[in-house]
Amino acid sequence: MDYYEIGQKIRKIRKARGLSQEKLAEKVGISVTHMSHIETANTKMSLSTFAKLASALEVRTDELLYDDRPEDRQTSITYITELLDNCSTQQVRIIEDVVKAVKESLNKNI
Length: 110
Description:
Blueprint: H1 3-16, H2 21-28, H3 32-40, H4 47-57, H5 61-65, H6 70-85, H7 89-109
């Protein structure tokens, strides 16, 4: 288990959610110092803390443990395609604009 990689995933998701270390630590019930040490792998976290972090970040624990799996990505793409099949041309264009904006924001902030 690579605690550094897990800590970096937690940090990335925390920032994407607009949470400070202080706010996430408060949600989980740990000190800010402990939160910082988890993100930098200067300490190992308990299973309970790990579960609370996943819950506070609204992610599955396996998302923190494993790299993205190609089958997960393909499942998401298939689902999005199915959603778009039921949209009008105008709705698809609006969704396209929203996706472009979100992608640009992610590229700048993550």
